[in-house]
Specification:
Number of strands: 11
Strand content: over 45%
Number of domains: 1
Radius of gyration: 22 Å
Structural class: mainly beta
Shape: elongated
Length: 228
């Protein structure tokens, strides 16, 4: 039996919790007269898909993908901040060479082509940030995140014979076929993704604002494939 902690749908509750946290931070800032930092961020991510025993999810390598979003930083002490972010993150992976064509076919058929899986999320990380200085200095942040899938597709390209075996020794037809296509795979990817996150870098004042240079990681704890 599934326990329900709050009334309403799960997506609605997550966004409600985010807005409640932001409201609490802004209210605390007004009450304690502390500085709240609201800013924009962006960068390049290197997502890495890892498959289990399913051959349809194995063999992927990282694809370069952008992310951008907003961050709200609420100082708790001179050396500790609470960070809430809302990011749009493009993830996924790519695979080249002999690979399965269609997961619904029995037996599996194989071909040699380029396959790129693109999965876009709206992610909400919540982290505690420890820093070496009041405003400037090194920082280390740790926490967790929830991601909501907004798009999932595969982009394939290339021409290849179709084979009965993954070694490519038993062709089905004598002529190659084209694999130029874009396919919606939203039904194959779970809508929600959860995991741990962290960041390390340096803060420094830039005029009346604050500039940040850092590196971060997300480690997913949930299976993104709807039917592994």
């Amino acid at each position: 039996m599934r326990r329900r902690l709050l009334n309403g749908s799960f997506p609605d509750q997550v966004f409600k919790v985010v807005f409640i946290i932001i409201f609490i931070l802004i209210s605390a800032n007004l009450f304690y007269a502390a500085e709240t930092w609201l800013g924009m961020q962006g960068g390049l991510s290197l997502p890495n898909l890892k498959g289990g025993d399913n051959p349809l999810s194995q063999g992927y390598t990282s694809r370069k993908a952008p992310f951008l979003g907003f961050t709200l930083i609420q100082p708790l002490t001179d050396r500790l901040n609470l960070k809430v972010e809302i990011n749009y993150s493009s993830q996924g992976g790519k695979r080249d060479g002999l690979q399965p064509i269609d997961p619904t076919q029995v037996p599996l058929l194989y071909a040699n082509f380029h396959n790129e899986t693109i999965i876009d999320y709206v992610e909400v990380p919540l982290m505690l940030e420890m820093k070496t200085g009041d405003r400037q200095g090194l920082f280390l942040a740790l926490g967790g995140y929830a991601g909501y899938r907004v798009r999932a597709k595969t982009a394939t390209s290339g021409n290849s014979l179709i084979y009965l075996d993954p070694a490519g020794t038993q062709p089905v037809i004598p002529e190659p076929v084209s694999f130029e296509a874009n396919t919606d795979v939203s039904q194959e990817i779970n809508r929600w993704n959860f995991g741990l996150c962290g960041a390390v870098g340096i803060n420094w004042t830039f005029g009346s604002g604050l500039a940040v240079l850092g590196a971060r990681f997300n480690y997913g704890l949930s299976n993104i494939q709807a039917h592994p």
